[in-house]
Amino acid sequence: MSSTINSFMAAHHKECDELFAQAEQAVSEGDWEGGLPRWQAFADELEKHFTREEQILFPEFEQATGMTGGPTQMMRMEHEQMRSLVNEINKAGTARDMEQFLGLSESLMVTMQQHNMKEEQILYPMTDQSLTNTDEIIERMNQ
User: Fold this and answer.
1) CB 128 within 8 A of CB 2
2) Which domains does the chain carry?
3) Alpha carbon of 134 to those of 22, 24, 93: distances in Å?
4) pTM, 2 dp
5) What is residue 32's predicted lDDT score, i.e. its pLDDT?
6) DSSP labels for the chain?
7) Alpha carbon 100 to its chain's center
8) pLDDT by residue (tens digit) across 43-80?
């Protein structure tokens, strides 16, 4: 395989971004029937991404480096912020409240962009430098 954590995870960021854009576009056009399933697909992929990091990648990084209170702690906190926004957006979707849905999704998009940039420019390169078993870790995250 010989991939990097950065390339693997950044590709999943891009997949999530595309699903998010499709959902937001549909809802902005008033297409709730098309938008909400796309939104759910995005939310599912986002949670899958967080789970990969929190259950596999971050513990591997922390074990290899001994850093448990640094970048991974910050990423976990940001994951919780994003989960909270997703929950609020779900409520807006259920209520078919377009203004609330789009306003919250804008906040989520900005938060995700900042979060992803930190991961792709700082944390993932650190993991690629610190871990010797990246192929095995990527394989586990793919399961």
Assistant:
1) no
2) 5-142 (1.20.120.520)
3) 31, 34, 38
4) 0.94
5) 98
6) ----HHHHHHHHHHHHHHHHHHHHHHHHTT-HHHHHHHHHHHHHHHHHHHHHIIIIIHHHHHHHH--SSSHHHHHHHHHHHHHHHHHHHHHHHHTT-HHHHHHHHHHHHHHHHHHHHHIIIIIHHHHHHH-S-HHHHHHHHH-
7) 21
8) 999 999 999 999 999 999 999 999 888 899 999 999 99
pLDDT at 63: 95
Amino acid occupying residue 88:
E
Sole residue written with tokens 């390169």:
125
Asked if 22 and 76 touch (Cβ cutoff 8 Å), the reply is no
Determine whether 53 is exposed, middle or buried from the number of CB atoms within 10 Å of its CB (0-12, 13-18, 19+).
buried
Which residue type does 102 have? L
